[in-house]
Amino acid sequence: MMDHDRPDEPGRDDDRPATRPGREDEAPAAGSPRAPLRRAPTPPEIVEIASPNHGPRRGVAAPNMVVIHYTNMSSAALALARLCNPAAEVSAHYLIDETGGTFRLVSEMRRAWHAGVSAWGPVEDVNSHSIGIELANPGPEAGLPPFPEAQIEALERLLFAVRLRWAIPPARVLGHSDVAVGRKIDPGEKFPWARLARAGHAIWSDAEAPVPAPALPPETLLGVHALKLGYRWEETAEGFADLVRALQMRFAPDETGAPASPRLAARVAEMAGRFPVADGERRSSYAPPGPSGRVHVAPPRPDEAPDDDGFGPDFDLDTE
Ligand SMILES: [Zn+2]
Hints:
The chain is an alpha/beta fold and 320 residues long. Helices cover 24% and strands 9% of the residues.
C-alpha cells in the first residue's frame, strides 16, 4: 500500500529554513560566533515529485545525518522514474540533476529508502537517521564523469538549508560508501569532499605524511581510527581492503585503489581525533522517551520494502 503524506503534515513546508538567514543586514560579522554559517545562499528552487516509497522513521524523531549518492543510471529522468516506482521500492529525499534541478521526492519527516544495509557508529538503521540525496551521474561504467558545477552548487544550497533545519554537523554529512563499506562505492572519488568541507558542509583533512615516516606501517592504526570515526566493515582481509578504499575515496581520492599510504593514515587519524563518532550524537536525534521511560521504536509496517536488497550492480539506487 502506498503511504502518501497528508497535506497537513509538518513536512509539507520543509523547504523553508527554520530561520531566515541571508539578508545582508543580518549577516554576521566575520569572527563573530555565528561567522562559520556565513551568509545563507539562496535556497534552491525545489520541484515536488512525490514518491510513494517511504515509511515512518524508526526510533528517531528527526534526521541527524545526510547520505550522498550518485544514481549510477544513464539519465536523471530514468532515475526519477525509478525512485518514484512503487515496484522498485527505492527512494531518496532529493534528486539533483546535472543542471542543478532539485527534486524533492520524500518529505524530510519520513524515512526514505536509499541507504540499504548500512551502519555508522552505533547507527544501524541509517535510513531512519538520514536525509538521502541522489546526484544524477551515470557512474563508473560511463567513466564516472565529473559532477558539473551547477549540480554541486545546488547540492551546497540544499545542504545549507537541510543542515540548518535539523542542526546536522558537518561530520555527519557522509557518502553511501562511508556507511556501506564494501557494498557501495558512491559518490566515488570524483566527489568534491574538500570543496564541501571548505563550505562547512563536510569534514576534510589536508594532513600530509609525517616526516620522518612513522615506524609503523600505515595500515596498523587505520582500522582503529576508522572505527573511532564511525566506519563499520567486515572483519576479513577483503573487508579491510574495502575499508581502505572507502577511506581513500573520502580523504585521499587521488590514491583510490593504491595501497594505504602514510598520508591517508595521517588524515584519518586527524579526523578521528577531531570528530569521533560518539560526539556526533545529538539530543534531537532520539525520540523522546515514552511513559515507560523507554524510547519508542515503531515496528516495521507490512507495507514497507522488504529487507533484502534485490538490485543488481547496474543500479546504485538502494532499498530500505
Ligand atoms: Zn548510493
